[in-house]
Amino acid sequence: MNASSTDPAARDRRPVDWAISDGLTDYDAAVRAMDARSTQVAEGGPECVWLLEHPALYTAGTSADPADLKDPGRLPVVRVGRGGQYTYHGPGQRIAYLMLDLRDRGRDVRAYVHALEGWVIDALAAFNVDGERREGRVGVWVRRPGGSGEAKIAAIGVRVRRWVTLHGVALNVEPDLSHYAGIVPCGVREHGVTSLADLGRIVTMEEVDAALREAFQDRFGRVRGAVPPLAVETA
């Protein structure tokens, strides 16, 4: 699905603000900033994609099963309003929060999640990684080298309020994968998690951001550089 070819309105939309925060951004502060920005979008302000990293923590979505928190004392746990179950955030993981107006993008949440998966798959291709979807499992998966199964490389959890999206994607670039041992990631027990580094792709966050930006423009429309919704890093 290429936005420029499947969505005639994409060329006529205002560019989406593309913001990147350096360092580690406090999770609660980021959610407050994202909420405020989504309200602005709902009232006609420009859409926004915000790239950042968080300190190490677990987040529990609206479907989280307490039994899936295997090591409660390992890291802070934050309950959030997005869909999904438990996931891990931490340094070396690129978080992409998207505040997009679905009133102008079809009002179809399922199609939006599908497009997010496609966006990540397109970006991974820049590093010769074949990302894949799985029926009944949200996120992006890769086959392990040597035919030793499959693993999740990107988690997706979204919320929609007033037809504006919140939360988004967590792509594992080079995080500490050992922290996933404290949870059942996204409620999936049969498969593990991986990262670009774990797959032997040693890339910088700047290279990942460039791949995400190019893939986003192909799928969702033009972007422009912008100031992050949260200007001061708090962690």
Determine the fraction of residues in helical runs and give it as a percent range. Answer: 10-25%
* Termini gap: 37 Å
Instruction: Please summarize the sheet with the most strands.
Output: 9 strands, mixed
Coarse structural class: alpha/beta
Integer count of domains: 1
Task: Give the name of the CATH superfamily.
Answer: Bira Bifunctional Protein, Domain 2
Share of β-strand residues:
25-35%
CATH topology: BirA Bifunctional Protein, domain 2
Q: N-to-C SSE series? A: HEHEEEEEHEEEEEHE
Figure out the total of helices.
4
Name of the level-1 CATH class: Alpha Beta
- Give the mean pLDDT: 90
Give the tally of β-strands: 12
Ranges where pLDDT stays below 50 over 5 or more residues in a row are 1-6
What does this structure look like?
The chain is an alpha/beta fold. It has a single domain (3-225), classed as Bira Bifunctional Protein, Domain 2 (BirA Bifunctional Protein, domain 2), CATH 3.30.930. It has four helices and twelve strands. The chain has helices at 3-6, 27-42, 109-125, 205-219; strands at residues 16-24, 48-53, 57-60, 77-79, 86-89, 93-99, 132-134, 137-143, 150-161, 164-172, 192-193, 223-225. Helix 3 (109-125) crosses helix 4. Residues 1-6 have low confidence and may be disordered.
